[in-house]
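[Solved] Which block belongs to which protein?

Original post:
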Amino acid sequence: MRLVIALIWLLHWLPLPLLAALGRALGRLLWWFGRSRRRIALRNLELCFPQMAEAERRALAREHFGWLGRSLLERGLLWFASEARLKRLIRVDGPVEAADQHPDTAWMWLVPHFLGLDVAGTGVRINVRRDAASIYQRQSNPVFDRVMRRGRLRFGRTELFSRKESAKPLMRAVRNGAAFFNLPDMDFGAKDAAFVPFFGVPAATLLAPSRMARLLGMKVQPVIAEMLPGGRGYRLRCFEPLEGFPSDDAEADTARLNRWIEERIRENPAQYLWVHKRFKTRPPGQPTLY
């Protein structure tokens, strides 16, 4: 793993167009040799886009793997490049400064799992002065975990809490003024979740965004980052905070968020994280979809 990290560090010095080309080449290798992830991506696309021809879904999956390869190699930029270089590469659209303009309001950035997820985190942190907090999945390799944490924490004052910890430290950080990066669209099981439609398929989706926003009186602002073709940089899309969110119905709020994410996926389907088993957890009595 140390050699892999050293390689990622060396590659981050390359011009982005060249690094992007190498990432797409890596994506082609992942497509051919990552059979398990390829099957997951194809199955997800079959479930979410049943009206699409099989050949079209397969082409979309291959394109997805090209972006996936890029996202892996370009993490070196986000972890090691200078702030000045990152500001040149990340174009900001929308009110990125909204959290700073409302310092007395509890704030949630809602960041779905597009492949530019780390770009979104970095882009917000180099443009927003406010403290931040997020939950992350501790990596099994301690060296990679340490490098990833250091890379994500190097801009602004940010706290990362392990998903295995209690929510109390996170809640305390938010009450102390930290804005919360919330990643709402992965399958973490049925606990504290509801089965709400995602492209028409019941998907175990955490109720936490609605419940937490209601408990703490939070504004909820969606943020998505897109990787631009040809290594031309990135586009950070900061949307206006959601109107009427949260309501007093957490399940209805959760279904609303899924619909919003679906709309963004339709705008850029190849860059959503299709290699995750989004429909792994099934309602009682339903068979596995994988």
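(Second protein starts here: sequence line, then its structure tokens.)
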Amino acid sequence: MNSRQRRGVILLLLSILCALGAFAGVLSVVDDVKSKVGPEVTAYELKSDIAPYTPLGAGQFSAVRMPERWLSPTAVTDLADIRDKIAVTTLKKGSLLQSDMIVDQPALKAGEQEVAIMIDAATGVAGKITPGATVNVYATFEGARESDPDQSRVIVSGARVLDVGELTPLDPDANDRSSTATEAVPITFALSAIDAQRITYAESFAERVRLALVAPGGDGTVPEQDRTYELADDQ
């Protein structure tokens, strides 16, 4: 091998070493960028505008990959989170979906109202009333005159429970009806307008209001002849 060939071999080796050095440098930069950016996650971008109160579905969004550290804590990363949700405001095309853009679909049906009353913990179905349960609401009334009999009445049948609140101490001086009760639970119902008036009246004027839990699958219907009871009926 003459000197000219040796120089060629040396230059070739130098070129290879430079290429390897450059490649190592690129890998180092890529690794550095990855370490600064962090792992990627899936977020969801709106395909088009969505009007307020519109029910949400997976077809309204497209998945995008982006570094987790660039996402806000409220970013939605799992489409299971939109199940039974609606848009709380206008959602714009291209926006990333955030949890504060959506809310649960209203539990009320058309024509229903949401009404909450306090139920004496001792006269309710203690610990067994849960959201989604169906109950009949009974109320007892004193006779209008001393000669009139006391009555128990079905005020509302098939009332749907939306929410059960926390056990709350009662003010013993609040009214005569609750003077013997020490604790009550706020229970929220979905009711028609007339049933909302009935249950509100009972809370205000009945001696006691009681809940009867309806068996799962039942509608709580009470025959008209059984909706009012007097002690004399059994004598």
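Accepted answer:
You had them paired correctly. Confirming on the second one: Residues 174-178 have pLDDT under 50 and may be disordered.
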